[in-house]
Each structure stands twice: as C-alpha cells, then as structure tokens.
Design brief:
Layout: H1 11-24, H2 37-44, H3 48-60, E1 64-67, E2 71-74, H4 78-83
Antiparallel strand pairs: 1-2
Helix pairs in contact: 1-3, 2-3
Amino acid sequence: MVPALDDGTPLFVQIAGQLADDIVDGQLAEGSRVPSTNELAAFYRINPATAAKGINMLVDDGVLEKRRGIGMFVAAGAREHLRGW
C-alpha cells in the first residue's frame, strides 16, 4: 500500500519531510543509503524530478550527501542536525 501524500503541501517538501522523519526516528541511520529518486518516484507514484527536488533539499541542508556513482547517504551528524530543524 502506498502511503498517502497530503494535497496541501508540495510533494517534494513531503518527500524531504518523510526522509527527515525516517532519519530522526532511526529508520535511516547515519551512513546508510537513501532510496534513489527513481525508487522514491516508483514507491510514491510521482515524477522522479519531484523526488529529486525533495532529496536535494536535504542535500543542500547537509543532511544527505552524494557519493558519486553509488548514491545518496545520510550524512554524519544528520540526526542531531534535524532535531534542531
């Protein structure tokens, strides 16, 4: 079953928020791989560009880090950073 996304908030903000919640809750540990934009797009049935925009919000904030050729990962200190977010 696909989780419902809210109609009142932009989808990319909801994607970033869900990933941030997963990091704070410990479901995504620091150093762990984050689902790709294509995985998120397929899971939520949204455009990959929308998923990428949500991921890039967290990259810009230093929560996720890009590792060229292998994907996105939760940055060191991301959980503590998000607790103050």
